[in-house]
Write a structure and sequence with these properties.
By secondary structure, this protein is an alpha+beta fold. It contains four helices and four strands, in the order αααββββα.
């Protein structure tokens, strides 16, 4: 009797293990415009999620045929607006580029401040000289003492 029950159980297990679909195929079914619930039903919970500038960013990390994939879905107002590989900002807007621009601008500002400080120091010295009268050459004739 146990033997007759074991055969259908083994067959069911074999059939259900062959029905698994790869996460990569499931992810390829995710399209922009899908709602969060639809993505959750299809892919399950994300490996990571974050909220930035009013957008939700879900990251799915999975393996398919021994290859690691990291895919992202971005949502705005509950709808997917980006589906694909890990999103990278434009090179012109990347943190490294912005830091380099800011550093260059800071150097320009520092140079301008140093120039202004030197100009103000000279202007004060000129003002002080005029106020004391040391800026003018004074001619004092030499007199011979009277005997």
């Amino acid at each position: 009797m146990i033997r007759y029950l074991a055969i259908p159980v083994v067959l069911i297990l074999l059939l259900t293990t062959g029905c698994q679909t790869s996460m990569l195929k499931q992810f390829n079914e995710v399209k922009p415009g899908m709602e969060k619930d639809d993505v959750l039903d299809l892919m399950g919970s994300p490996s990571r999620s974050e909220r930035f500038h009013g957008k939700d960013r879900w990251t799915y990390v999975f393996y398919d045929q021994h290859l690691r994939f990291e895919k992202e879905v971005h949502f705005f107002d509950g709808n997917a607006i980006y589906v694909g590989d890990e999103w990278q900002p434009e090179v012109a807007k990347s943190a490294v580029t912005m830091d380099a621009r800011n550093e260059e601008r800071n150097k320009e500002i520092d140079a301008q401040i140093a120039k202004d400080v030197e100009d103000h120091r000279r202007a004060y010295q000129d003002f002080e000289a005029k106020a004391k009268g040391t800026d003018k050459v004074r001619y004092v004739p030499e007199f011979e003492p009277i005997r």
